[in-house]
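Trying the structure run again after the queue cleared.
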Amino acid sequence: MSSAILLAACSSGPVQEQADAGAVPIECAVGPGSELAPDCLVEANGEALVIRHPDGSFRRLIRDGDSLSSADGAGEPVMAREGETVEFTVDGDRYRWRAGQLDGR
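Done. Tokens:
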């Protein structure tokens, strides 16, 4: 009986997509010592953003004009804008995209 339980626990379920179709790739550096790379995907639904990390974890954020706030209990984003680039950090993770890249989605 215990082997049946093990087999059931190891069975693969339906494959879950990392992000919805139409998600926008952005640069991110997730975890200590990580370098920025275009590895994250952003789903935008009105003012709500979900940033999907390559490992399947994610962050939920709310846009309020030109600023962002956490919607998932994480630390508050610290934002910087230089020219056409928006960059912010949350709890040591960094994210960067072109200004306007997520508008209209």
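Residues 2-10 form the longest helix (9 residues). Worth checking whether this holds up in the mutant runs.
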